[in-house]
Amino acid sequence: MKAKNIFISTGLVLSAVLGASSSAQAASFVTKTNPDPVLDPTQDIFLESITQDGQIFTPDVNLFRVNSATIISNTPVVFNVPNTGAASSDKGDNASNPISGNPPTSIIPENNPDNDDIKDYLGNFNLNNIIDTEDNGAFEIDLTFETFVSKSDGGRDNLFFYERGSNSDLLVQALDTTGNTIGTAFKITRNLWTPAGYSINTLEVASAQAVGSYGLNFLQLGLADDAVIGGVKLIAESSFNGPDFKVFAGQTGEPIVHTPEPTTMIGLGSIAGLALLRRRQTKKASV
User: What pTM value is reported for the model?
Assistant: First the structure.
């Protein structure tokens, strides 16, 4: 698993070097939480807004959650051996559990997370539901967002990341609306995280740790102005020191193109098939 992950992502790591050294560094942003200030790092901490350059990003208005996750590779847990494996779900000691009756995989030594674990812990606005990565773990995970996202105006960011501890790296590349990689990979190195203004104490750690934040815009991701993001590919190598993260997508400017519902796509396919059948019947009758 680890060898496969390294092989797949080597090209992305090389391309990320240029992205990380470019002059197009993301602007910092201000995170507002509920409660604010955060007095108990073990409890639920909900994201109320992100402000950047006077623009406010608000949940479900122009700030969006992860909608699905596909694990390409993930260093597996060694049975009953603590601190093994890679990406797993984690939460504040007393924070709510997004999967009813299913405890976080970070505290179950025999369990490996599945796609739903990753999606459910990232797919909400509770900043104390995260994905925890073991220090030597490696993963490659594709995420989609609940809507397609176009370039923000004024060079503002489109991807907003949080990392517990501000001491890990994370490689990011955009996915188009069909799940293919586009642009160039950008490596968020541990020195780039800036204070998010709150701390969290999760089941995986013994005490509260300050959270860092970092945003990425289209220029950093090597995207054309007319590109549309459907999701992101996230990669951690064993040398990245285990990123413990949360991510959201956002947009300012023109209206967002929303992801078609599966039932809508089925309906459109049925209509197209019926039209094709009628054309064939008409042609046959005329012959």
Answer: 0.82
